[in-house]
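Hey team,

Filing this mostly as a record. A colleague (T.K.) asked me to run one chain through the structure pipeline before their review meeting, and I want the input and output archived in the tracker in case anyone asks later how it was produced. No errors, nothing strange. Just documentation.

Input sequence:
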Amino acid sequence: MSTRPARRALVVGAGPAGLATAVLLRRAGFEVRVLEGRRDASAGGSALTLWPNALAALERIGAAAPVLARSAPSGGLAMRTAHGATLQYVAPEVLEERCGGTGRALLRADLMDALYGLHPPDAVEFGARCVAVRQERDTVVVRFDDGREAEGDVLIGADGIRSQVRAALFGGGDLRFAGYAVARGVAGFADPGHPASLSLGAGRQFGLFPLPGGRMYWFAAFTAREGEAARDPGGSLLPLLQERFARWHDPVPEVLKATDPADVTVTDIHDRPPLRRWGEGAVALVGDAAHPSAPAMGQGTCQAFEDAVVLAGHLADAADIPAALRAYAAQRRRRAHSVTVQSHWMGRLGQWRHPLLRGLRDGMIRATPRWAQLRSLRTTFTFEPAC
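Output structure:
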């Protein structure tokens, strides 16, 4: 009795999107190779928040339990002015009842450990930097910068906002600078009961999210020229942030004072206009490779996990891989593109500097009806894949 040989999947990129996609494809019967251009598994970043839609996807992926064990609940959600006046607040019990739950904040390294734990040892091939992609009949070939090549029946580009797989398919010239940079850090600062919060000022924003172990994850967004952040690493930036946010509401100044400069990262914020296609033939994109977005909604990693679940669902029993990839893109494109567009404009809104514009912004946020606010949150936080 003959059996069909296992289909071969190449996953380019070993970030959250790539690791999640790879574990689901392996579970669906694919032979999976995960190809990562970095030389090691260093996680990078500081921390992040996963919202209920990501947690629902992680249940499917199999990483929900370790993520819950290593994270802290966000509590309620608050939007404030720089002086601490409340613009909006949603209590945690309302989020649980109406939006499927609260968020969970954790170190990026802990998330990556949870995802790596789903894979066999040495599942990721490091030092494999993709430079070209070609398709030959029923085979996809990836070429690396050292001249080596890898072949598969399907290729998934999960290699981030500067995706080489995307560039091979569609070019890479549409990256756009959002006009601001974001510094992120972890402070040894405990404030029991403090909700997840976003505070808006003049060309500045500050977010706070409780972490396990008496720590606080924070981010500071500030108007900047492109490239300034790269020339000013986190260690030298922290004193400047402490000065810029010294008059903001508590506990913002205290959180910055409790931060080790070594725990600060800073990046320019970029995104891309939505793509009409997410792949070609037996090649598809997931996560930031497909739909990079500004961080204003905290949905980048969340949407990547949704991609992984839907993609694997379409490929699991597919007789026609290109058709399955088109079905995946058709199912995901509208939702992910909506998040990209909303995040772009929310980020721009948060950076307004003129007093009249800021007054208009704050007034609009205050005046948003409760039902509209909850409907928007419920739409974003709900993930119920059809496959």
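Quick notes for T.K.: The first helix runs from residue 16 to 27. The first strand starts at residue 8 and ends at 12.
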